[in-house]
Amino acid sequence: MARRKRERDLPDWHLWREVTRTVTPLRPGEAPPAFEEPLTASLPLPLPPSPLSKPKPEPFFIPMPSYRPGGAPAPRPQHDIEPRLKQRLQRGHIDIDGTIDLHGMRQSEAHEALKRYVTARWTRGDRTLLVITGKGLKKTGPDAAVIIERGVLRAMLPVWLSEPPLSGLVAGWDNAAQGHGGQGAFYVRLRRERDY
Question: Is the pTM of this model over 0.70?
Fold first, then answer.
């Protein structure tokens, strides 16, 4: 097997020279081994980035909990309301305190109407609301069974409920039963005023 030249083994020759100056020999009186200086002391240039390389993904955004005057963060609302409570709502054992129909509104109008309505109902002491968004399903094309697009209001309602100022008022939400609108409506459970 052919032996390679020492300068090829040590591409960072200048680092090796610095290290050898700091070494204390094991046996006093012996000098550390000396190597010949390489003919070229230039460092290899880094390769340019590949044009096909994928960009690094953005870090996942984690929202901060909403602020409370006492310094403690407000508890984050759970997406689902309690299963037992939902079952009682579906069967009609618990009354729905109020209903708002956002169906047919523009996104900005629906957001403002929802904020006003939830705040007013929470101030009154109501606990359970029914928010109707509509399914918003668009079926176009030759196959009517294929859903092309879901409704914007239906998709945005969970986002709006988890953002301030509503996040501090809302305890949870879930899809409504078929008798209350099914996939086109949500049960929204409000916090008690003392929990706020």
Answer: no
